[in-house]
């Protein structure tokens, strides 16, 4: 009887927790009575198309420390891609090759760890597999710092990124408050269509710090005149005003205030930059006070030194759960988290059909944003707070963190 094996790949933007999910998959397979080997596809789905695979079971058996180190290594150990599969009704050549590869390597389950666009790949592979009667189970494992996947309470990677954002805002506040002069600091935070990460800046507030004093999210139309009035009002109350804005804030007509009209990625998403700088120039021109903008771009995506233990633990468990679900025959699905309570924080691991998740996006509920659209409400704070809890020990050598060696990805650079 032929052995039953698995294959796993990672896709989309990096996070602190995506390798923890990979470690969970490897651990699940190593403990499985059904699967023998787990293969890793380098650079997402393109690794299958290029026959660029690695035997993860063999690698992890060589060194028992690898799995623990993998959990705390940021970004993707297997590499990533931004490859969009065509509609198989238009061109099924990629699908024919992928499922032939599954047959060659005796693959019984394929796990794809990623965000919105990656779940589009899970959906397409699931639909094609059903069409040809393939027995391969296709299961998505969520990750994205944007926290915008539907059907799950939150996504791995978000909690650690939120912890980084909140910590950075508190440090920016300390930097700013030392000067007794009128000033405005605008912090631009990633988030094209959903403001979850920017909202996490509110977690920087404590007994002595009320910054950020204003928060603007893409879920609410942005008005420049209202913004200027908000800042002026804050300047009457204090010397230093700190503002958090999502990169994707847009006006009432839906126009991004910072988008390049001609720049889009392979999935058709506008390439954004400059919301903070746009508002910096506006404040400087209209209010005439000291102002600077800070763009927190990719820094929080791989800040493993500020990882949330809650985040990494959940990511690892989701990887294990994906393997268990495939053993039960589940396919065309994504593993999910259902929140039972905020305090004490309690969750359950479940799954949802991928057709309800792919190509959809979850926004912050309007009631979690104040009426003026310039701050968040307590229910959102309650939702966010548990996700950043706990610290993760990282091994250091010569003062620098020790992560997994990713030189195998160098040939793709």
Automatic annotation (TrEMBL):
Activity-regulation annotation: Non-allosteric.
UniProt-listed Enzyme Commission number(s): 2.7.1.90
Binding site for substrate: 144-146, 190-192, 247
This protein's name: Pyrophosphate--fructose 6-phosphate 1-phosphotransferase
Cofactor: Mg(2+)
Assembly and interaction partners: Homodimer.
Major subcellular location class: cytoplasm
Function: Catalyzes the phosphorylation of D-fructose 6-phosphate, the first committing step of glycolysis. Uses inorganic phosphate (PPi) as phosphoryl donor instead of ATP like common ATP-dependent phosphofructokinases (ATP-PFKs), which renders the reaction reversible, and can thus function both in glycolysis and gluconeogenesis. Consistently, PPi-PFK can replace the enzymes of both the forward (ATP-PFK) and reverse (fructose-bisphosphatase (FBPase)) reactions.
Organism: Roseburia intestinalis
Entry keyword annotation includes Kinase: yes
Family: Belongs to the phosphofructokinase type A (PFKA) family. PPi-dependent PFK group II subfamily. Clade 'B2' sub-subfamily.
Site feature: Important for catalytic activity: 143
Active site: 146 (proton acceptor)
Residues carrying the site annotation Important for catalytic activity and substrate specificity: 117
InterPro entries noted in UniProt: ATP_PFK, PFKA, Phosphofructokinase_dom, PKF_sf, PPi-PFK
Pfam families documented for this protein: PFK (PF00365)
Domain Phosphofructokinase: 6-323
Source organism phylogeny: Bacteria, Bacillati, Bacillota, Clostridia, Lachnospirales
Keyword Cytoplasm: yes
């Amino acid at each position: 009887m032929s052995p039953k094996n698995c294959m796993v790949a990672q896709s989309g933007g990096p996070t602190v927790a995506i390798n923890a999910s990979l470690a969970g998959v490897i651990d699940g397979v190593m403990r499985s009575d059904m699967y023998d080997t787990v293969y890793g596809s380098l650079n997402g789905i393109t690794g299958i198309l290029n026959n660029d695979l690695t035997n993860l079971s063999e690698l992890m058996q060589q060194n028992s420390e690898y799995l623990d180190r993998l959990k705390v290594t940021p970004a993707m150990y297997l590499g990533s891609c931004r490859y969009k599969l065509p509609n198989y009704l238009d061109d099924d050549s990629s699908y024919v090759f992928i499922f032939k590869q599954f047959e060659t390597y005796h693959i019984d389950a394929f796990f794809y760890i990623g965000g919105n666009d990656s779940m589009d790949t899970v959906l397409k592979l699931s639909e094609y597999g059903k069409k040809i009667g393939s027995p391969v189970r296709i299961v998505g494992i969520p990750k994205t710092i944007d926290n915008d996947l539907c059907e799950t309470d939150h996504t791995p990677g978000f909690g650690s990124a939120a912890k980084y954002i909140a910590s950075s805002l508190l440090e920016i506040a300390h930097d700013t408050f030392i000067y007794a002069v009128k000033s405005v600091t605008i912090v631009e935070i990633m988030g094209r269509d959903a403001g979850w990460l920017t909202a996490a800046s509110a977690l920087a507030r404590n007994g002595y710090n009320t910054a950020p004093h204003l928060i603007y999210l893409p879920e609410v139309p942005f008005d420049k005149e209202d913004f200027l009035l908000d800042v002026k009002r804050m300047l009457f109350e204090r010397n230093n005003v700190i503002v958090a804005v999502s990169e994707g804030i847009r006006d009432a007509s839906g126009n991004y205030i910072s988008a390049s009209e001609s720049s889009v990625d392979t999935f058709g998403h506008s390439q954004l930059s400059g919301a903070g700088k746009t508002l910096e120039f506006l404040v400087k021109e209209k209010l005439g006070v000291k102002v600077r903008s800070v763009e927190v771009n990719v820094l929080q995506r791989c800040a493993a030194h500020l990882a949330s233990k809650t985040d990494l633990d959940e990511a690892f468990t989701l990887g294990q759960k994906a393997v268990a679900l495939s053993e039960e025959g589940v396919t065309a699905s994504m593993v999910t988290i259902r929140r039972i309570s905020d305090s004490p924080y309690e969750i359950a691991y479940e799954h949802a059909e991928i057709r309800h998740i792919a190509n959809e996006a979850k926004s912050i509920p309007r009631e979690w944003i104040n009426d003026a659209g310039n701050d968040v409400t307590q229910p959102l704070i309650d939702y966010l707070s548990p996700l950043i809890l706990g610290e993760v020990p990282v091994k250091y050598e010569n003062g620098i963190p020790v992560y997994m060696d990713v030189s195998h990805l160098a040939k793709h650079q």
